[in-house]
């Protein structure tokens, strides 16, 4: 992945989800389920193949389709073999695009692993037409660099290698004089594209863009040129980024577990014998020659698919694709042959140590995504773990026998892995967790689950499918999966129907065949890392970026006219309604005219900042039932109805939510209201919950991301008195009583609150149902005065740091700015695009492209977005410890003295305007936008005003804003790294050093004044 953009909301805690099933399952669904679409014209034609029909479009180009496919997908095959998958869905005037190549890490030569991933990075560097000022002169130097790297691979002596790399560095510096960095990103940004990125897995490489509907022609022109050739431009600085990526993987205990699982399950297959990112030895000895050969072999039209979903015209789009890609020359490519892997003969056990919390993971080798068994595998997984009523959900999670237990299928083409995961409670061994997980698998094998569960799961998939119909990204991702797995679209669409036909016996047979006693167990233990290797930093001279230059191709693309696309701004008076139910409770309403799903939220505008006990009360609710239904039975009944409920207490708000199928809205609401008012205490459940929470807290201080982005970030922003530390101490948690928490639940909605609804019901019907079923006291209480937290403003900046066993160092820089002003929104938006927004930004190109000082780097002006709150300036650096000095100096200089580049400014301005012209506020987002507007102290949405203001802004305006608002900011630093690797003399230049111990970072040992 090229860039992970970090966005920190300074008004909420880091949300730690108890169950990973939803997150993991969404990732599986993203690549494995069918997402429907709104209706388009019906097809007529004769069947072709198994379930496929053929039709000819108005332009004479034939395509295939599947009768009854809710996506109304058309699958084209050009004469050169290029596959094209199109689906029309016009909720917004945008199109999600993926260009998928059937080649990933598994295809790497054994002596050059990581090659596919290298190539993914290099595909953003341009061709002979863009990314260069003078291709003829640049090519001579690039060819020389290629040969130099081939010679470098033959050297063994460390000093000789170092000296020769210095020569490569000098030739690379000379070649960079002709390069123009990030022209690809500039062209895509100028169209209004978002999400520009790529990813490489074992089986595929995929290039990603979300484009405005009026940019199709431009996008195709750029991509056709991009895929016509591959140029290894600015190679050694990008190589350094890959080094960083490798080091980050070595710092990640979860990644080490993943690699160990793969090696052990697949010792005779490339899934286990090599990794996508490659070995350290191969990373240190890259071969440009082999990368070029890989591109020539696999990046051919008969091995590629263009996958698009959005506001498109089928006939026009395929005609344009034919125009731009029809001349791409096909090459012979051997038919795919699945690599075979023998079954394991016995149980394999491995141990991984690292600083993160302990857990156990069990993996079974199962047939891959290309096999017919993929459908029964999905069903078996859901019977075990569906977040509500699965065997693991009820027997381990609901009964609180294991922390964070779940299952999922890690799907690959040749073989997949059926994963079980669980973390120990206090005093529980990893072996005991393993046994409890395997006990659920044995129940699956024996059919010890209710008969209704399969029907409920099929219904759950139906609901998920409906929800995901609203995402072009997920719809198009299914095209990627079908293509790269060689699955006929007819078979892919039929997955849900196949699942309906499965029986309990089918699931039992599958479990007994594939989930036997030949699995792999990984015990992830807390301790010093066993992996001591890292990719060392080579000496790199800062290369030229030539930001003020541009190629003739870029000028041609930017000069190509685009059809007008007028912005549409939200109008709260017409796009939603505000009504009232009994006791004048406000009802914010938006009708869902697209499907039969609803979402209902009771929102209380006070949260755990005002009442820290409430957060624990709502957590307790998830383990409770009523005098009518046990907690387990309640979960099952909601699951049968195709509905789900949740209560969450944030810092400043409480959300009481219900969602699901509208046909079951009333019975689900009645059951939910009964739970809220008649919930029954369970002393054992409370004891288990508190014990589990104490263990989770102990695990939290071993989590690097939580330490940095929750604990340390809060220190840097607020000091010791922060929302993150505003929670009950461990001793206060232990003292909680069941009656105390039950009372909180019973009366949390006795205060003034509002209702937000997005669903099919008419307002009148909704209010009538709420008046009848929403239980309220005779008189609602007024909300108490809100508790607030002040940002930290010491006379001298401070550097808060935590000692953590890792190779890299990560830093967050935070400076408090002025009180939020909506009038600055246009300037803030444009500044963030210019300075820190994406691969073409000043921060990214300078810190990563030119200086190779960080793999992940980002900066942004973060508006409080609320009246009377303070804005913040935020920066993040993830880098090797030995680069930290240079990285901090580089970032500080950029924050205070950003370069003035007119071309970048104009590109940023166009990018922001194009995005706004194609953006739409839809569905429940209208309700969210309304709340955001009110929080700013406004009554009308300001987007139109911002759009008009943006048109008038100049680079002088932006530089003035930077000088007045950002330059010279008082930055507090949050630093996480291994003590012995941190340069404290250097860090002390940025403020007073203060080590934060793991015990005090979240304040769990300090009683909170209540």
UniProtKB/TrEMBL annotation:
Residue ranges occupied by any Peptidase M16 N-terminal domain in the UniProt entry: 89-133, 607-715
A molecular-function term among this protein's GO annotations: peptidase activity
Cofactors, names only: Zn(2+)
Top-level lineage group: Bacteria
One Pfam family named in its UniProt record: Peptidase_M16_C
Entry keyword set: Hydrolase, Metal-binding, Metalloprotease, Protease, Zinc
Boundaries of every Peptidase M16 C-terminal domain copy: 289-459, 781-895
One GO biological process term: proteolysis
Sequence similarity: Belongs to the peptidase M16 family.
Protein name: Zinc protease
Organism: Persicobacter psychrovividus
Lineage of the organism: Bacteria, Pseudomonadati, Bacteroidota, Cytophagia, Cytophagales
């Amino acid at each position: 992945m090229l860039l992970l953009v970090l966005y920190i909301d300074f008004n909420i805690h880091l949300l730690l989800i108890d169950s990973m099933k939803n997150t993991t399952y969404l990732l599986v669904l993203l690549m494995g389920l069918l997402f429907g679409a709104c209706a388009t014209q019906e097809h007529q034609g004769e069947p072709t193949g198994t379930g496929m029909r053929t039709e000819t479009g108005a332009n004479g180009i034939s395509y295939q389709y599947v009768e009854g496919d809710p996506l109304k997908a058309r699958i084209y095959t050009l004469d050169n073999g290029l596959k094209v998958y199109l689906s029309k869905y016009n909720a917004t005037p945008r199109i999600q695009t993926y260009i998928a190549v059937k080649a990933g890490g598994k295809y790497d030569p054994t002596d050059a692993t990581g090659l596919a991933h290298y190539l993914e990075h290099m595909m953003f560097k341009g061709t002979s037409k863009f990314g260069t000022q003078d291709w003829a002169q640049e090519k001579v130097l690039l060819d020389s660099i290629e040969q130099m790297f081939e010679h470098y691979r033959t050297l063994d002596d460390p000093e000789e290698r170092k000296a020769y790399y210095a020569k490569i560095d000098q030739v690379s510096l000379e070649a960079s004089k002709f390069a123009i960095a990030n022209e690809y990103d500039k062209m895509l940004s100028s169209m209004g594209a978002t999400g520009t990125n790529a990813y490489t897995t074992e089986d595929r490489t995929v290039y990603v863009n979300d484009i405005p509907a009026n940019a199709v022609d431009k996008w195709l022109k750029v991509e056709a040129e991009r895929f016509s050739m591959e140029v290894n431009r600015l190679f050694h600085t990008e190589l350094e980024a890959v080094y960083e990526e490798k080091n980050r993987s070595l710092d990640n205990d979860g990644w080490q577990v993943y690699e160990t699982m793969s090696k052990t399950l697949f010792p005779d297959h490339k899934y286990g014998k090599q990794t996508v990112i490659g070995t350290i030895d191969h990373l240190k000895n890259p071969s440009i020659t082999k990368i070029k050969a890989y591109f020539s072999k696999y990046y051919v039209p008969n091995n590629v698919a263009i996958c698009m979903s959005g506001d498109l015209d089928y006939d026009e789009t395929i005609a344009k694709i034919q125009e731009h890609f029809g001349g791409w020359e096909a090459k012979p490519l051997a038919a795919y042959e699945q690599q075979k892997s023998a079954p394991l003969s016995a149980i394999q056990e491995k141990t991984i140590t690292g600083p993160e919390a302990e857990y156990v993971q069990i993996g079974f080798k199962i047939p891959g995504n290309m096999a017919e068994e993929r459908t029964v595998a999905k069903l078996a997984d859901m019977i075990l773990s569906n977040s509500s009523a699965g065997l693991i959900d009820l027997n381990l999670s609901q009964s609180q026998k294991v922390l964070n237990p779940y299952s999922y299928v890690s799907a690959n083409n040749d073989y997949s892995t059926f994963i079980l995961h669980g973390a120990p409670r206090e005093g529980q061994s990893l072996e005991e967790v393993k046994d409890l997980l395997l006990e659920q698998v044995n129940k699956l094998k024996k059919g010890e689950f209710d008969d209704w569960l399969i029907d409920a799961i099929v219904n759950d998939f139906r609901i998920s499918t409906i929800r995901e119909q609203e995402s072009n990204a997920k719809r198009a991702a299914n095209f990627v999966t079908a293509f790269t797995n060689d699955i006929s679209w007819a078979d892919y669409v039929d997955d849900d129907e196949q699942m309906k036909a499965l029986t309990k016996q089918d699931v039992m047979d599958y479990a007994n065949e594939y989930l036997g006693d030949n699995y792999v167990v990984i015990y992830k233990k807390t301790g010093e890392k066993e992996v001591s290797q890292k990719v060392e930093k080579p000496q790199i001279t800062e290369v030229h970026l030539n930001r003020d230059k541009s190629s003739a191709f870029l000028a041609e693309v930017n000069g190509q006219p685009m059809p007008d696309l007028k912005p549409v701004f939200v109008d709260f008076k017409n796009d939603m309604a505000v009504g009232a139910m009994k006791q004048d409770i406000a009802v914010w309403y938006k009708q869902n005219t697209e499907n039969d799903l609803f979402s209902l939220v009771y929102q209380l505008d006070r949260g755990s900042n005002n009442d820290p006990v409430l957060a624990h009360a709502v957590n307790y609710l998830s383990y409770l039932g009523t005098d009518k239904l046990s907690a387990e039975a309640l979960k099952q009944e909601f699951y049968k109805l195709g509905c789900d409920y949740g209560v969450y207490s944030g810092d400043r708000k409480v959300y009481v939510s219900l969602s699901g199928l509208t046909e079951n809205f009333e019975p689900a609401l009645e059951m939910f209201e009964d739970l809220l008012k008649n919930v029954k205490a369970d002393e054992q459940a409370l004891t288990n919950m508190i014990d589990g929470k104490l263990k989770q807290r102990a695990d939290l201080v071993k989590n690097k991301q939580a330490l940095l982005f929750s604990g340390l970030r809060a220190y840097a922003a607020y000091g010791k008195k922060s929302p993150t530390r505003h929670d009950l101490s461990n001793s206060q948690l232990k003292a909680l009583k069941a009656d105390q928490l039950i009372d909180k639940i019973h009366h949390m909605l006795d205060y003034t609150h509002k209702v937000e609804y997005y669903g099919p019901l008419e307002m009148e019907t909704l209010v009538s149902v709420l008046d009848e079923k929403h239980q309220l006291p005779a008189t609602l209480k007024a909300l108490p005065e809100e508790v607030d937290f002040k940002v930290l403003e010491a006379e001298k900046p401070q550097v808060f740091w935590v000692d953590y066993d890792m190779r890299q160092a990560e830093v967050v820089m935070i400076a408090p700015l002025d009180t939020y002003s909506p009038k600055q929104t246009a300037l803030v938006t444009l500044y963030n695009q210019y300075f820190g927004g994406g691969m073409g930004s000043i921060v990214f190109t300078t810190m990563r492209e030119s200086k190779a000082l960080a793999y992940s780097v980002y900066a942004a002006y973060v508006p409080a977005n609320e009246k009377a709150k303070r804005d913040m300036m935020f920066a993040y650096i993830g880098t090797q410890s030995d680069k930290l000095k240079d990285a901090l100096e580089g970032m500080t200089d950029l924050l205070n003295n950003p370069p003035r580049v007119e071309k970048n400014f104009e590109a940023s301005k166009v990018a922001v305007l194009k995005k706004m012209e194609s953006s739409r506020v839809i569905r429940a987002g209208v309700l969210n936008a309304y709340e955001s507007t009110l929080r700013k102290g406004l009554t009308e949405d300001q987007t139109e005003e911002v759009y008009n203001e943006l048109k008038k802004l100049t680079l002088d305006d932006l530089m003035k804003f930077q000088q007045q608002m950002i330059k010279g900011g008082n930055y507090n630093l949050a630093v996480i790294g291994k003590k012995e690797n941190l340069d404290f003399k250097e860090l002390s230049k940025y403020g007073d050093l203060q080590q934060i111990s793991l015990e005090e970072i979240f304040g769990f040992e300090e009683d909170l004044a209540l």
